[in-house]
Design brief:
CATH topology: Amino acid/polyamine transporter I
CATH superfamily: Amino acid/polyamine transporter I
Helix content: over 70%
Strand content: under 5%
Number of strands: 0
Shape: globular
Number of helices: 20
Structural class: mainly alpha
CATH class: Mainly Alpha
CATH architecture: Up-down Bundle
Length: 436
């Protein structure tokens, strides 16, 4: 029997593209073909959603729940709605133009402005990687009972090995990350079964804004920074730019509709996980309000709710660290390629972005404070990609009939203003101009 050549063997990415093409062209009918096509469409938003359940979220959500109970749930919900709008617009940009936000930013703001944007974005990437890498390593070290630096080394090796899947096309790594996201979601579904919650109070605080004290402002900014991620906006526009060959505006419009549905689904799941983290941590409020770290939450969960709850917590944290570290590295490659036109081998980038984490921990810095402030840094950088995305999305020459509408622009602008207001408040608070 003659073996097929490499050129004739269909990869999972090839099969995914074929299923998408059939669905977009309407060549296949029936529920099974529609389901197969819909599953093929699913991937970019799920990958981007990892940024919204990374270890930085664990730290800020633990502190929010332990210190203030359910009071800051509204910030988590509002941040998630902001994320939905901007991730959907980023995905639309890639679908319509076939280019990503970093590439378009370089064209729109060439020279020094593009260089400054790149440096700011790389700073955000470093802050992101610090939270993802160290947070995942904390979970691994607690699970394996090994030193934190050893856990960091193991995390680094695992991340590099898993990133090797990119050589096989886009689909294998999408499926792997989707599996890790599912593990996080299932873990917190199990936690909510174990942890008693006051659901009427949860619903009330999810929609009624409140800031209990001045210190809660810093935590609110950390929650925003941990939820709406700059690198996820850049990455999402890249994940959709060459996933399918689109010939007509009708096909692009249909692809945008599928993308919007996936964004709502994926980020709704991520938002529910974040809210579940706060609800779980709220169990510490009162007698254990001083719990403000990942390892503190883990050690307190065991006597309060049993070893099962604590182990589930660590498994979800490890899945979060691995998936978000991979996504962070992928985003870094997209940003560098888009802004400065070149990339470095993925293992070199991974090593470079890991080094600050090793230095910070080796110098004895407090892990929790480091993670919280990394999220604050992200929140300060966040308006940059948000504003840039709005500028290019309103360009009629670039977007044509897919140009962002004026009402949507006003809504998105108000969301950028919300983030900027939180940042300004923190600056005034730090300068002593308003009480903390």
């Amino acid at each position: 029997m003659e073996c097929p050549s490499i050129d004739t063997v269909q990869t999972s990415s090839d099969r995914t593209r074929a299923a998408m093409a059939d669905l977009l062209a309407g060549r296949r009918r029936g529920w099974f073909a529609t389901l197969r096509g819909a599953l093929a469409m699913t991937g970019p938003a799920v990958v981007a959603s990892v940024a919204y359940v990374d270890p930085g979220n664990y730290v800020t959500n633990i502190q929010a729940g332990a210190r203030y109970g359910y009071a800051l749930l509204w910030v988590v919900l509002l941040s998630n709605l902001v994320a939905m709008l901007f991730q959907a617009q980023a995905a639309k940009l890639g679908i319509v133009t076939g280019r990503n936000l970093a590439e378009l930013s370089r064209d729109r703001f060439p020279g020094i402005p593009a260089g400054v944007m790149w440096l700011m974005t790389e700073t955000a990437a470093m802050a992101t990687d610090l939270a993802e890498f160290v947070g995942g390593a904390v979970g691994l070290s607690l699970l394996l009972h090994c030193p934190l630096l050893t856990g960091m080394a193991i995390m680094g090796v695992l991340t590099l090995l898993l990133l090797g899947l990119q050589a096989r096309g886009f689909r294998p790594i999408e499926l792997l990350i989707s599996a890790l996201v599912a593990a996080i979601c299932l873990s917190y579904a199990a936690e909510l079964v174990i942890v008693p919650a006051d659901w009427p109070s949860v619903l009330r605080h999810s929609v009624v804004p409140s800031i209990p004290d001045g210190q809660a402002i810093t935590l609110c900014i950390g929650l925003v920074g941990a939820t709406v991620m700059p690198h996820a906006i850049y990455l999402h526009s890249s994940l959709t730019q060459d996933r399918a060959v689109l010939q007509t505006d009708a096909e692009r419009a249909r692809m945008v509709r599928f993308s919007n549905r996936e964004v709502v689904f994926a980020l709704s799941m991520a938002g529910l996980v974040n809210m579940a983290m706060v609800v779980t941590a709220a169990h510490f409020h009162g007698a254990h309000s001083d719990i403000d770290s990942i390892d503190g939450a883990y050690r307190t969960l065991t006597p309060l709710l049993g070893a099962g709850a604590a182990t589930i917590f660590l498994v979800s944290l490890l899945a979060s660290g691995l998936s978000s570290s991979m996504v962070g590295t992928m985003a870094g490659q997209v940003v560098m390629q888009g802004f400065v036109g070149f990339t470095v081998p993925v293992w070199i980038r991974r090593v470079i972005t890991m080094l600050p984490s090793f230095v910070v921990i080796a110098l004895g810095a407090d892990v929790t404070s480091t993670l919280i402030w990394s999220q604050v840094v992200l929140s300060f950088v966040l308006p940059l990609p948000m504003v840039t995305l709005l500028v290019v999305s309103r360009d009629a020459r670039l977007m044509g009939g897919f140009r962002m509408s004026r009402p949507m622009l006003l809504l998105a602008g108000a969301m950028v203003g919300f983030v900027a207001l939180l940042n300004l408040t923190l600056l005034l608070q730090t300068a002593g101009l308003i009480p903390s």
